[in-house]
Amino acid sequence: MSTRTRYREDVEKAYEIQSKAGIEGALRGTAVGTGLAVLAHYTWPLFRRQPLALKAFLISGFAISGLVFSAENALMVHEAARRREENIIRREARLDLARQGLVGTETEIAKWKAARLGENSSPANNTDHDC
């Protein structure tokens, strides 16, 4: 699998995570906004006299805020996890290359990753060793 293909898959995965979290956040924000609007309508006479358009605007503000904050938070968490995984792989590559007497440059790490991915995808390594 090429680097470009892996990059595209990572982008698609991040997009899916962000859009799912955005939808959930928007629904949560809409529910909170609607609940607060209903509560304010029945408890505050000044709010009761406001036009429906203003109330809908306030609810949509809650929905949009929920969408944006949830999607951004989910993307930040995903990116942090990917960074952690990449750092672990790079550390392992540098250690393995150092054992071989090579300097862990970007080119050497990329070659190590390619060899490692080729090694992991071979049918001989896909056997289960559960004893």
UniProtKB/TrEMBL annotation:
Record's keyword annotation contains Transmembrane helix: yes
Membrane-crossing segments per the record: 21-44, 56-75
Keywords recorded for this protein, A-Z: Membrane, Transmembrane, Transmembrane helix
Superkingdom assignment: Eukaryota
Protein name: Uncharacterized protein
Species annotation: Macrolepiota fuliginosa MF-IS2
